[in-house]
Amino acid sequence: MWSSLKAEPLGENRELNMIRGTRPFSLSAAARAVLGRGSWGGDGGTQQLTLWDVAEQIRKKECRRVVVMAGAGISTPSGIPDFRSPGSGLYSNLEQYDIPYPEAIFELMYFFANPKPFFTLAKELYPGNYRPNYAHYFLRLLHDKGLLLRLYTQNIDGLERVAGIPPDRLVEAHGTFATATCTVCRRKFPGEDFRGDVMADKVPHCPVCTGVIKPDIVFFGEELPQRFFLHMADFPMADLLFVIGTSLEVEPFASLAGAVRSSVPRVLINRDLVGPFAWQRRHNDVAQLGDVVSGVEKLVELLDWEEEMQTLMRKEKEKVGRG
Ligand SMILES: [Zn+2]
């Protein structure tokens, strides 16, 4: 059931979630004002958790197995267009290749007929063009403090790696440009081997069999990376879940938010209220809505990690300067 990356409606899972989840409950605005300390929601009289509470739990080391789910919203502050959305800058660039429809760029059938549009995207997203931002470095700091169990990302820009989060802490659910596979003999190569070709607008070929090389980005209908199955151990083990910058619209990624134990706080940092935070809220859910970087900054402030963030970002910037 995890084999397709095509966006699927959430209806089916909703039924499943209703069985194991909480009942919908609504409080009047007046009751919320009395009961809720936060600005957001209430839950049948149970104290609604706030971002401050979560920060306090992290500071007291009550949470030390943090699982993070991240999406395009953590990369747009780095200047990366949300390229799966029609109308974004990148798709306009692709018009010159006359692709029949935007999704064709991630379709194998189309790739084998005409790999050029995909490699135009690859050239744009190959490591080196974009820099991680505050949100990425917050996740790096979480790792440095030994608190990050795993980061599940939908992004294919590789900025989590650039920010210094080791690959073994990462599940790049939609694949990566860091590695590539020959479409004919299936040999694996480091993505770096083909940087020259990609930058020179050449379709890379296998040095062994001359087959076309495809970076390990997950196309529609392709299997998710094996690492994705780590979720079966990670989510039940998590003691805190962050959902940052994702609309939770693409399955199977979307359903993961419901896979943590019901006692585990879930924190959404996102422009809008999405997924189970909107329709299957738990009393220990927290939503920090609005600009993603501002939301992360707010959390860092509550954690009192501002200085460490500044130090980390300064060091990383120097590294880039030398590189
Ligand atoms: Zn080959």
List keywords for this structure.
323 residues, alpha/beta, Rossmann fold, SIR2/SIRT2 'Small Domain', 2 domains, 6-stranded parallel sheet, 3-stranded antiparallel sheet, 13 helices, disordered N terminus, binds zinc ion, zinc, EC 2.3.1.286, NAD+ binding, Ssirtuin_cat_dom, Sirtuin_class_I
Short structural summary:
This protein is of the alpha/beta class and 323 residues long. It contains 13 helices and nine strands.
How would you sum up this structure, described in words?
The structure is a single chain. The protein has helices spanning 11-20, 29-35, 51-59, 89-94, 108-113, 116-125, 134-144, 159-162, 195-199, 231-237, 275-279, 292-303, 306-322; strands at 66-70, 148-153, 170-172, 175-182, 188-190, 213-217, 240-244, 266-270, 285-289. With 323 residues, it is an alpha/beta fold. The chain folds into 2 domains: 49-79 and 132-174 and 224-322, TPP-binding domain (Rossmann fold); 81-129 and 177-217, 2-Layer Sandwich (SIR2/SIRT2 'Small Domain'), CATH 3.30.1600. A 6-stranded parallel beta sheet has the order 3-2-1-7-8-9. Strands 5-4-6 form a 3-stranded antiparallel beta sheet, with no helix packed on it. Bound molecules: zinc ion. Belongs to the sirtuin family. Class I subfamily. Keywords: Metal-binding, NAD, Transferase, Zinc. One of its GO terms (molecular function) is zinc ion binding. Its EC number is 2.3.1.286.
